[in-house]
Amino acid sequence: MKHIVKILTLVMAITTLWIGLLQTSMIPSSHTWLLPIYFVVSLGCYGLLMVGVGLMNFPTCPQEALLLQKDIIEAKEYLNQKGVDFSST
Amino acid sequence: MELADRAVGFLLTFISLSIFTYYTFWVIILPFVDDDHFVHNYFLSREYAILIPVSAGVALLSFLSIFIGFVMLKSKKKVA
Fold first, then answer.
1. CA angle in degrees (0–180, nearest 5) for B29-B31-B33
2. The whole model's pTM is what?
3. Within this chain, do residues B9 and B28 fall inside the same structural domain, yes or no?
4. Are residues B48 and B38 in the same domain?
5. Minimal Cα–Cα distance from B65 to chain A, Å?
6. Which positions ≥6 away from A27 have C-beta within 8 Å?
7. B9/A53 CB distance under 8 A
8. Long-range contacts made by residues A23-30, C-beta under 8 angstroms, separation at least 24?
9. B27 versus A80: which is more confidently predicted?
10. Domain count along chain B
11. Which pLDDT tens digit goes with each residue over A18-76?
C-alpha cells in the first residue's frame, strides 16, 4: 500500500513538472511534448535492465541440489521399506 | 547453460543501457546543441524520436495480443 502511494506521488510530480514546462514554454513545446515518450522509453529500459541484472546474478546452489537429491533417495528408500512402489517413476 | 543465461543477461543489460544513453542524448541534450554542430549528423531528425518508440510499442502490443489469442485458441481446443 505504501509503495503505490510512492509511485503515484512520483507520477503526479512528473506530471505537474511537465504541465509547468508546457505552460511556461521555457523550452520549445515540440521538445516538451517528447518528455512523456522519453519517460515511457526509460521505464522500458529500466525493466530490461532489471531483467538483465537479475539474469546475470541468478543464484545457483549446486550443494543444495546435491543435498536435495540425497534427500530424495533417502525418502524413496524409506518409503520402499514401508511398501510404496516407485518403479513407475 | 548457466554461462548462456549469464551472457543473455549481460546482453540485455548492455542493450538497455545503450538505448537509454542514446535516447537521453537524443531527446534531452540535443535540443541544447547548436543546429549546425557536427553531433547532429549522428542522429535522425526529431520526428523519428516519436515514430520509432510508438511503432515499436504498437508492434509489441499487437504481437502480445496475437500470442495471447493463439494460446487461448489452443487451450480451448484441448478442452473440447
1. 75
2. 0.68
3. yes
4. no
5. 19
6. A21, B31
7. yes
8. A27/B31, A28/B31, A30/B46
9. A80
10. 2
11. 888 878 877 666 777 778 888 888 889 999 999 999 988 888 888 899 999 999 999 98
ipTM of the complex: 0.72
pLDDT at res. A89: 58
What one-letter code names the amino acid at B61? L
Give a yes or no: residue A72 inside a domain: no
Q: What are the cell numbers at B16?
A: 538497455
How many domains is chain A built from? 1
CB neighbours (10 Å) of residue A10? 10
Q: Does residue B6 sit in the same domain as residue B34?
A: yes
Render pLDDT for B24-76 as a digit per residue (tens, 0 to 9): 888 877 777 777 777 777 777 777 878 888 899 999 999 999 999 999 999 98
Searching chain B, which residue's CA lies closest to the CA of residue A27? B31
Q: How far is the alpha carbon of B17 from chain A, nearest alpha carbon, in Å? A: 7
Residue range of the domain that includes A25:
2-59
